[in-house]
Specification:
CATH class of chain A: Alpha Beta
Largest sheet of chain B: none
Membrane topology (chain B): Multi-pass membrane protein
Subcellular location (chain B): Cell inner membrane; Membrane
Distance between the termini of chain B: 34 Å
Shape of chain B: globular
Protein name (chain B): Transport permease protein
CATH superfamily of chain A: P-loop containing nucleotide triphosphate hydrolases
Oligomer: heterodimer
Organism (chain B): Marinobacterium marinum
Keywords (chain B): Cell membrane, Membrane, Transmembrane, Transmembrane helix, Transport
Number of strands of chain B: 0
């Protein structure tokens, strides 16, 4: 049960962005999606969020195929994109209210959920502050609060910690793990920052549109006979070889 | 439940557009300054040169300022509609468009809400402008202020739809500036907003025909007649038809893949 992807394929004209990608997200866990730039991570996210229409393959939610309309999937998904999507002119609360309205949530529901989430994310005292006045780490927290406002069971994070300092990155990482644990949230976390992944985390390795691995990090290390996931990843994607060529 | 969710979304989008408008107060002022300049400076200068004979819906000779008032009201709607659409291009470039696209509610409804929000904000500016017109003795009938409302709403929806369609086809904000020059100015100047079409015909037959097929001309005439408590049926039909066509085109342009792939 949960989110399952079967034989997903996608082309941009002649270029194959995703080729026969299949996986099932481990429910209630942080699933890491690892891949270098151009691996197809953003295309995969665009397909999962239905910003792109499916060309080939299938996405199943709770063992039911998601075809048009995709409203059921969208109700279950919370998304944080790599690029900030907050409205800078509005306050923290106003951004949350707007998101709630787009999901048809009543103001009472939004207020209750926003209060809980902002307290949980240490943003309660910033609720009336403009987004412009927040630093990068706080903005990311607001985006996470917004993504969780409508009570999704699956959270998609697309390189959500890019551009943040180490402390902010660690804080968000810790927070997401706590949410997984406390709320049985299923998370797909696309990243190229390998230090964000724990050895027990299920990891998907995507490279040139193909899924190279789908296993816990320590299992991938064992199979690749490497000490760290970074080494395993490098071996799999042959970055070492390409660097030598350069 | 679904209807209730749609109404909540409408309220949320209206609130968001209103808040953004409040944050951009200069937009309100510039929206008024532009037509006021036309009314106070341009019209004064051209009053003597451009005599306006008795043409419907006017019952008597009118001043040039009186003639251009409906055109300037539509000018506000035109600029505001396009500027709001420009904000959609900005939203897409900045990524905040995704927030809208990820809503589980029907996209056609969300875009319609956006159009309503654009129209309502534009109406506030139009009525403020008409109010200022009273200060300089440009006084349409009081009842006309009420009868013109549906015409203004329809015109705002038409121009908003055209703007949304254009913004759905534009990849970058920079390109939009070019389209503004190729769409807004020709649309405004090649219409009956500033001069009656018979006057245009005296000077150039082909320009007259271009003005005649310009939907903005018919929107201006719809507003002009409605402001004098009359209905111009052909203008109503053309404006309604144009609104419907561009709404469909805008919805088509904002299909998920179309928008998302422009990133």
């Amino acid at each position: 049960m949960g989110l399952e992807v079967r034989q997903l394929g996608f082309r941009y004209g002649p270029r194959q962005a995703l080729d026969d990608v299949s996986f099932t997200l481990a429910a209630g866990q942080l699933n890491a999606l690892l891949g270098p730039n151009g691996a197809g991570k953003s295309t995969l996210y665009a397909l999962l969020t239905r910003l792109f229409s499916l060309q080939k393959g299938e996405i199943r939610l709770d063992d039911v195929s998601i075809t048009h309309p995709s409203s059921r999937l969208k109700q279950r998904l919370g998304v944080v994109f790599q690029q900030s999507t907050l409205d800078l002119d509005l306050s923290v609360l106003q951004n949350l209210e707007y998101h709630g309205a787009l999901h048809g949530l009543t103001s009472q529901h939004v207020n209750r959920a926003a209060t809980e989430l902002l307290e949980r994310l240490d943003l309660a005292d910033r609720r009336h502050d403009s987004i412009r006045s927040l630093n990068g780490g706080h903005r990311r927290r607001v985006e996470i609060a917004r993504a969780l406002l409508h009570g999704p069971s699956i959270l998609l994070l697309d390189e959500a910690t890019v551009g943040l300092d180490t402390a902010a990155r660690q804080s968000i990482n810790r927070l997401v793990r706590e949410l997984c644990h406390e709320q049985s949230l299923t998370v797909l976390w696309a990243t190229h920052l390998i230090e964000e992944i724990d050895s027990d985390d299920p990891v998907l390795v995507l490279h040139q549109g193909r899924l190279l691995a789908d296993a816990p990090a320590h299992v991938i290390c064992h199979k690749q006979q490497t000490r760290t996931l970074a080494e395993a990843f490098e071996r799999m994607t042959e970055l070492k070889e390409s660097r030598r060529c350069i | 439940m679904h209807l209730a969710a749609c109404m909540i979304a409408l309220k949320g989008i209206l609130k968001r557009e209103f808040l953004r408008f409040i944050h951009q107060r200069t937009r309100f002022l510039s929206a008024l300054v532009r037509p006021l300049l036309w009314l106070l400076v341009f019209a004064t200068g051209f009053r003597a040169a451009l005599g306006v004979s008795i043409i419907p819906p006017y019952q008597t000779y009118i001043t040039y300022e009186t003639y251009i008032l409906p055109g300037l009201c539509c000018m506000i709607l035109l600029f505001n509609g396009m500027q709001s659409s420009l904000s959609m291009v900005y939203d897409r470039e900045m990524g905040s468009m995704k927030v809208l696209l990820l809503s589980p509610l029907p996209r056609s409804w969300l875009l319609f809400c956006k159009l309503i929000a654009i129209a309502l904000l534009s109406l506030a500016q139009v009525y403020a402008f008409i109010g200022l017109g009273f200060l300089v003795d440009v006084t349409p009938p009081i009842m006309g202020l009420l009868t013109v409302l549906p015409a203004l709403v329809l015109t705002a929806l038409m121009l908003g739809s055209i703007g949304l369609f254009l913004s759905s086809r534009i990849r970058q904000l920079e390109n939009f500036a070019g389209v503004m020059n190729f769409v807004i100015f020709p649309m405004f100047f090649m219409s009956s907003a500033l001069y009656p079409l018979w006057k245009m015909r005296e000077s150039s037959e082909w320009l007259y025909w271009i003005c005649n097929v310009n939907p903005f001309t018919h929107a201006v005439e719809l507003v002009r007649f409605a402001l004098y408590t009359e209905l111009n049926l052909s203008a109503l039909l053309i404006t309604t038809g144009t609104t419907a066509v561009f709404m469909v085109l805008a919805l088509w342009g904002f299909r998920s893949e179309q928008v998302a792939r422009r990133h």
